[in-house]
Amino acid sequence: MTRSLSDDGPDDPPERTESDAVADPAAVTGGAASDDPGRIKVGVGELAVTADDAILTTSGLGSCVAVALVDRRAGVRGLLHAMLPAGEGRTTAASRPAKYVDTGIDSLIGGLDDAGAD
């Protein structure tokens, strides 16, 4: 579900850039800033982790799997948009872990840990 910026009330969220996403650079294969300020768009085969007020969004889920994890105490959350179930035996599993559910979840958890999640 994508939350509209209008749900946030009268205050506009701050401008965001790709560098505002907090994550393990080796694990993240996306999470680029969207055209909307205050949002990080996570594309197919990508993940992003943030520790600020950015809204993580994805679209075109189709038969893919999205996984969202949140640590409310640490104020950290992440979103994975995986395309395929398993990276085992695939040459791209190491270079594009977010493409696969199994390696993507491991990378998402690692990114959350790196950002201060418990």
Care to give the gist of this entry?
The protein has 118 residues and is α+β, with helices and mostly antiparallel strands. Helices cover 12% and strands 21% of the residues.
Largest sheet: 3 strands, antiparallel
In the CATH hierarchy, the architecture is 2-Layer Sandwich
Q: Measure the end-to-end span.
A: 25 Å
Mean pLDDT score: 79
- The CATH topology is given as 60s Ribosomal Protein L30, Chain: A
Number of structural domains: 1
- Strand arrangement across the biggest beta sheet: 2-5-4
Considering DSSP H and I runs of 4 or more, what fraction of the residues is helical? 10-25%
Number of helices: 1
Strand runs, count = 5
Q: How much of the polypeptide forms β-strand, as a percent range?
A: 15-25%
Q: What's the CATH class label?
A: Alpha Beta
One letter per element, helices H and strands E, the order comes to EEEEEH
Oligomer description: single chain
Stretches where pLDDT falls below 50 for ≥5 residues?
A: 1-29
